[in-house]
Amino acid sequence: MTEHRHGGHGNRQHGQRRRSGGSRNTPRLAEPPVAVLIGMPGAGKTRVGGEVAQMLGVRFTDSDEVIEHRAGMRITEYFSEYGEPKFRELESQVIADLLRTAGGIVSLGGGAPMTESVRCNLQKYISQGGKVVYLQADPQEAMERARRGGNRPMLAGDAAARWRALYEERDPVFDAVANVHVHTRGSSPQHAARKVMDMVMEHDVHVTGTSITPYDVRIGVGTSNHLAEVLGDRPVRIALIHTAPVQRHSDRARALLRQAGYEVSDVLIPDAEAGKTIEVANGIWQRLGNEGFTRSDAVVGLGGGAATDLAGFVAATWMRGIRYVNCPTSLLAMVDASTGGKTGINTPQGKNLVGSFYTPAGVLADMRTLETLPNDIFIEGLGEVAKSGFIRDPEILSILENHAQQLREFNGSTFLGSPLEDVVAELIERTVKVKAYHVSNDLREAGLREFLNYGHTLGHAIEQIEHFKWRHGNAVAVGCVFAAELSSILGYIDQDLVDYHRQLLGSLGLPISWSGGDWDSVLALMHRDKKARGNTLRFVVLEDVGHPIHLDDPPIEAVHEAFERIRSAH
């Protein structure tokens, strides 16, 4: 697995990404650019790039200006005196320097990516986490701007005809070079800049591994704009599977899909675990058959974890597997259910007992959807976040500690643009990386991936006994306390770490005790847990923060004692 960090944790309104105060003359430390803009002459690279830089509070650099400064003459004069080959050589040298030291936002001349050395340097920049943004303007708009702009030696003569010829030559190259594509047709410079900025600020986690077709988890504001890009041009029909509470977001997804030319089948399912049944799945299979879905068509799952679980299961089973994309709308779904390729439905005997391992084509965690998330549903997602901190990334726990009050007081209506936005973005990214690490090395849960089930053995039992009135993240929080108690009783950790579980989870507003079921019922359900082997109970416990282990067939007395401790809020 490789993980790419794109865009850092800058706040879009509060200028936390500031490197050089936005001034062209302010001294700055040498660092790679935040983003590099490419595009045809007249695409608006300079105007849009300047707007993006101003929004982010960083420096803007136009490579053509740097070239003219270094050459001591205008580009048209340099062309006339030395010719295009010599100009491209100078341009390549300047761009190589800018990719190492410019910082901020950089725009390149229209023909720069056609030079092989420039393309190589751009690919190296991308491999190190950079973003090359292809501004895809409407040809007629760009042609007109280029004609008016002047100082474009490549458009000498019949500017319109020359522009069209250059476009045919350059567009496929630009499309292949860029790792971000922004359509600006009909957009004002400010609107185009907002689009660019949202994409630049994304956090991307790349998931690879044995038997996994690589895919990206894209985290940020507006990542749903990538929907058509991730689905590709093969599908004709898209089944958009969603729940009623996310109608606003499904409306947007439907509009994006139709705008991209897909035929959209709108599939409304019951909310939460009520949607994860064989009856619901069967109804969808019938619709797919009646509407002529083929192996080349696709599914989009939009909603919380239950919706993305079901959508993945339908995609995995229809014609033995079709393409699907998850668009999680809750914190829990973003950090857990939508990533990793676990798909499934519930049965009366237990949760997720029927399912498959089938990875998505991509996951688009659009943080704009958190605007409509109720506080209690946001809080429950922190249960899975904290779990990931306990099993692998202690920095997650530090972030939760330092921002517990703000997280507990989450308000979707004031979330975007607030300092908390950056905190949540980092928590999502770090948690997804924890999951990606385990999934990449053990897709089918042969051993390592089971560590992701820390807190889940009791957590799933709680959900079942409570008839899913308890939300998953809340049940997992109690399950983590139970697992910590069991670890302590058996001498793997000391009581201080158990107390830390209670203190941290409690400070976030998560439950740390449960008294809703009897011991015999809980024990019976734990025996049905997916980690169980035959009649042997199997748990995930801790030796320390970041060091989970498997625990097979522990003394039943110890398990019972740990259970009693979470009942009494020990």
UniProtKB/TrEMBL annotation:
GO terms for biological process: amino acid biosynthetic process; aromatic amino acid family biosynthetic process; chorismate biosynthetic process. Keywords: Amino-acid biosynthesis, Aromatic amino acid biosynthesis, ATP-binding, Cobalt, Cytoplasm, Kinase, Lyase, Magnesium, Metal-binding, Multifunctional enzyme, NAD, Nucleotide-binding, Transferase, Zinc. Residues 381-532 form the 3-dehydroquinate synthase C-terminal domain. It holds the Pfam family DHQS_C. ATP binds at G42, A43, G44, K45, T46, R47, R152. Binds 1 Mg(2+) ion per subunit. Binds 1 divalent metal cation per subunit. Can use either Co(2+) or Zn(2+). Residues 1-32 are annotated as: Disordered. Its cofactor is Zn(2+); Mg(2+); Co(2+); NAD(+). Its EC number is 2.7.1.71, 4.2.3.4. It is found in: Cytoplasm. Residues 267-378 form the 3-dehydroquinate synthase N-terminal domain. This is Multifunctional fusion protein. It comes from Bifidobacterium thermophilum RBL67.
